[in-house]
Write a structure and sequence with these properties.
about 180 residues; single chain; Four Helix Bundle (Hemerythrin (Met), subunit A); mainly alpha
């Protein structure tokens, strides 16, 4: 009698055969979650940048300090914008909560980009007018929108985490003997 080897079958299973691959929707949802987590990290950094900018206004720092911090903020906003473009492209395959997150974050990101660009333009045109109401208004708006974005991303990711935990607890409860 000939012995059958299970190695070829094990190799097929471990090779990542498409028989056991995640569905495209599940892959898109996982990618969307990863991108939203990256947006959260960047939104936290942007929120710190915005708070620092507001403190510069009160501390009387140079226009160069303002320019450096605005450049950092613009970098974070552009990075967030790149992630949001990718999220929009996969929107149809994203989970409903991810679609809601995209919908709530996108307009705030647009406002942030607009206000940051306006502040940079003001600084380029009038570097000595750091206390002009139009400029300080831009700084306040940047801080407000950055905080709003941070809270929105945090809320959506925390809700998703709570839902995952609830689903896990329901599975555990269902598995208990009656």
């Amino acid at each position: 009698m000939r012995k059958m080897s299970y190695l070829p079958m094990a190799a097929l299973i471990l090779s990542g055969s498409s028989l056991f691959a995640a569905s495209p929707t599940a892959q898109a949802s996982a990618e969307a979650s990863r991108l939203l987590t990256e947006v959260r990290t960047m939104a936290n950094a942007l929120n710190r940048d915005a708070a620092t900018l507001e403190s510069y206004r009160l501390a009387g720092l140079s226009w160069q300090s303002h320019a450096n911090r605005l450049t950092l903020a613009r970098h974070h906003i552009n990075s967030i914008g790149n992630r949001l473009e990718r999220l929009e492209a996969m929107r149809g395959s994203a989970a409903p909560w991810q679609q809601e997150a995209i919908d709530s974050i996108t307009p705030v990101a647009a406002q942030l980009a607009s206000r940051t660009e306006a502040a940079i333009n003001h600084l380029n045109a009038s570097p000595r007018h750091l206390y002009a109401p139009v400029y300080t208004g831009h700084l306040s708006a940047i801080a407000g929108h950055a905080n709003q974005m941070k809270q929105s991303v945090d809320l959506h990711l925390n809700l998703a985490g709570a839902q995952d935990r609830l689903d896990s607890l329901r599975d555990e409860a269902a598995a208990l003997p009656s």
